[in-house]
Predict the 3D structure of the following.
Amino acid sequence: MPRPVYAAEGPGKARARPPGVAPLPKVTAPRLYVIDCGTLVYNRPEDYSLTREEVADTNMSVPCFLVIHPHGILLFDTGLSDRLVGRPLWENVDGGYGQIKFDTLSGQLADIGVTAADITYLALSHSHFDHIGNANDYAASIWLTQKAELDIMFGARADRAYLPLYAALAHARKVVFEGDHDVFGDGTVILKFTPGHTPGHQALYVKLAKTGGVVLSGDLYHYAEERALHRMPKEEQTAGTPASRELIDRFLKEKNAQLWIGHSTAFFRDAVKSPGWYE
Ligand SMILES: [Zn+2]
């Protein structure tokens, strides 16, 4: 049987769906998928200026998000590396964070009906290890990045331990900006410049017909308790996070939108996970 030809192999080639991939969803309004991209086992909330007594669960969920819009598909964050799947926890501890991963991002995308070749845009909330783990797999998409984050990712101070996980993005087609970026030009999907956690950190606003407006926090917050108790990592107090949090608070009011804190296990527990979706 002839080998199927995939879209990633070049424009103008015949396009067949890879075996085992669900049909690509056709949408008339944006859909938002919450994908399980792993869990961080962690017990030092002190790093976030919180005590263990103050935090209900010090572990962190690691979601990836997919937006299927009538004019294209956006992947927001790539989570923990797919290579961690099935590996023992003791092997996967990094900087005090134990990394657990049960399913690959690529496999969960296939369950939705999406292959890497179908993804128009890749955006990262920021370039820390739990957000860039599979970035290389999506380097054929157009990378939407803040200039400040691009500069630290490939500058002299880039973290050599993590650079290999996103190195392919150096050669990706890019849209580079400083500030907010309206992804599809219709106000429904907007990257919100929220520096502080990193110099080019960005959150994502998605306007959904039934659910309403949603802001995906990135690491503007890690624990819900940071928001309730007005806490943040000490180094972020003077790094822009207070102003970015105020900006998002005003934006949430203006848009009557909800804030989803991705690393909050309570958020992730209650979320509709892919292949289910929000619309
Ligand atoms: Zn994170």
Observations:
- The two ends are 39 Å apart (CA to CA).
